[in-house]
Amino acid sequence: MSEREKTDRTRRRFLTTSLAALGGAAATPALSGEKPDPAITEVQPWRRHLGPGVDASPYGLPSPFEAQVRRRNVPWLTADTRSSINFTPLHQIDGIITPNGLCFERHHSGVAEIDPSRHRLMINGLVEQPLVFTLEDIRRFPRENRIYFMECTANTGMEWHGPQMNGVQFTHGMIHNVMYTGVPLRLILQEAGIKASAKWLLAEGGDAAAMTRSIPLEKALDDCMVAFAQNGEALRPENGYPLRLLVPGWEGNMWIKWLRRLELGDKPWMQREETSKYTDLMPDGTARQFTWVMDAKSVITSPSPQAPITHGKGPLVITGLAWSGHGIISKVDVTLDGGRNWTEARIDGPRLPKSLHRFYLEIDWDGRPMLLQSRAMDETGYVQPTMKALKAIRGENSVYHNNGIQTWHVRENGEVENVEVS
Amino acid sequence: MSRFLNILAAVLVFLPLPVLAGKLGLGRPALPEEIAAWDKDVRPDGQGLPAGQGSVAQGEEIYLERCAACHGDFGEGVDRWPVLAGGQDTLTDERPIKTIGSYWPYLSTAFDYIQRSMPYGDAATLGADETYAILAYLLYMNDIVDDEGFTLSRENFTSITLPNQPSFRNDDRPRIEYPLFRDRCMTTCKDHVEITARAANVDVTPK
To answer: What is the ipTM metric for this complex?
Structure first.
């Protein structure tokens, strides 16, 4: 049977079961018709009384019933919340866009609270004319809108030593995906006139860490951007207000927030974040440096430990995210049996390079335990490896770039746990 | 006529925007004082090092006052604050300790970083002499210099090399890993599967 026929058959089976359910086989009181549903027969308060008027919340907030949807941190991980990280609640959001208030945060010296009227962007080094821009200057350049994922290099880093965190928020939540509005970096650099000897760019933040990274000029002139908006509104302070650098497909640490300076040079600066940190220690004690690209990766966001199955057997939507720093995701496969057999999942929504892709696999769950995994393949033909395959090369002392396949064990009762499989 | 206008419109739409062709004339020249105030980065070849010097003894004094509360009197790190000294020969251990002495490839990185980000919560307050002195003391704590009378300066800075520098190489994933990860097996990819570890047993997830 071809893959296509197989999916068609699954889909048919799914439709038949769902129709059967609607026909009266399901267990909810509303459908059984035994007892009238008070949600219908009683007049609800919001049906009777007037609700708040316009302007009750000039900057709108989610329903109070969604109060559990929030970023979380792992207190034992760091000494201080200002040199720390929190995690996007991936199990509670859908589609591909991360709402601004849920984008994970990583700060090295807290959130810089910058007065935009006192923010400047300087270009110096190997340029014809060092320049200073105000934010108003930046908004006079031609703009672009782009959707990109931004993944912390240490995402899933806690899992190198085997399964640690029971929750996709904690295992994979150092990622967000928003639409940026900004200016191609190339245009800003060209204003200053790049000297022929320039090969590298140093980007520097205006926070109390003055975070810096060296970026090869080739990448800077390719698809890097200086952004001032995310999802249509000004960048959030925790994401770099009023200006941040975008380095699409490359590790999150390079996306300098609170961007205040760009220096051109002929060699990399070997900053703390590209030597002490964000280098990959190999089992023989040597280390890889300049491991910039985030390789193809995917994860099932539901069901997952924080999003168990509560509805029992029958129609079940398995969903998750896939992404690659090398471009577009061409396939996502899902296994229910720990990697013995795989089915191609359906990617729905925009399929954009270096952006999150949303996938779904609709199944008719028979209530038996499952070992769920997803596996992404990107446009270069790279197939997301197992964690075991990665460890065979990199050992267990790596911290960064763990793009291995994640396993969720679903029990009969619908509970889900993070496990490792043979 | 209208057809001509349509064609003209189409041509205009697809012409590159004139502004993209050259400079826009945005921004203003950066003044030398402004560049000096912000451009303090230091490279391994010594580019960017300010004039100045500091001794191990001076460094110890400043370190104990401004750094030790978090990083420990001997760089051992208080609680979970970063460790700054020791860890030599631990890079292949189960819990490697990565410090300036055991892991960092370049001394310039430490000068740049300390002057840039430390002390945590009171950044950009250390002068050049103080930074040289702290570094001299960090080198001493890491057994990279063993002379208590050592003074670090712009002049002798690049003569110091860190022991782990040769251990770094550029990203070799494209050569080592990418060719291995191309198998999209769909059916009967393994004989049998069993659970070999569980996060529940580690029990570190926040409630």
So the answer is: 0.89
State pLDDT tens for residues B77-118.
999 999 999 999 999 998 999 999 999 999 999 999 999 999
What is the arithmetic mean of pLDDT over A393-415?
A: 96
Cβ neighbours for A190, distance < 8 A, ≥ 6 positions apart:
B23
Q: Is the N-terminal amide bond of A350 cis, ω within 30° of 0? A: no
Closest CA to A149 of A355, A296, A391, A289: A355
What is the average pLDDT value for chain A, to the nearest integer?
A: 93
pLDDT of residue B21: 57
CATH number of A86-288: 3.90.420.10
**What number of other Cβ atoms are within 10 A of residue A34's Cβ?**
7
Neighbouring-strand partners of residue A409: A371, A417
Indicate the SS3 state at residue A269.
coil
The domain limits of chain B are 41-158
CATH class given for the domain over A297-419: mainly beta
Q: What are the tens digits of pLDDT across the range A109-120?
A: 999 999 999 999
Query: Which of B180, B173, B176 is CA-nearest to residue A295?
Result: B173
Q: Look at chain A and count its residues.
A: 422
At B22, is the pLDDT very low, low, confident or very high (cuts 50, 70, 90)? confident
Interface of B with A in 82-101 (CB under 8 A): 91-92, 94, 96, 98, 100
Domain ranges of chain A: 3-47, 86-288, 297-419
Q: How far apart are CA A301 and CA A385, in angstroms?
A: 18
The answer, for B189 touching chain A at a CB cutoff of 8 Å, is: yes
Q: Which fold has domain B41-158?
A: Cytochrome Bc1 Complex; Chain D, domain 2 (1.10.760)
Tokens standing for residue A72? 């979380």
More confident residue, B201 or A146: A146
With a CB cutoff of 8 Å and minimum separation 6, the contacts of A141 are A183, A187, A188, B24, B26
**Interface probe, candidates A186, A269, A284, A306, chain B, greatest B C-beta count within 10 A:** A269
**Closest by alpha carbon to B162, among B93, B95, B111?**
B111
Report in angstroms the alpha-carbon separations of A416 from A70, A214, A312.
Answer: 20, 41, 13
Q: Which two tokens stand for residue A27?
A: 């267990």
Let me know: does B204 contact A170? Beta carbons within 8 Å: no
Task: Measure the CA–CA gap between B147 and B150, rounded to whole angstroms.
Answer: 5
Contacts of B181 in chain A (CB under 8 A): 382-385, 389
What average pLDDT does the structure give for chain B?
Answer: 91
Q: A349 is written with which tokens?
A: 């929504």
Predicted model pTM: 0.91
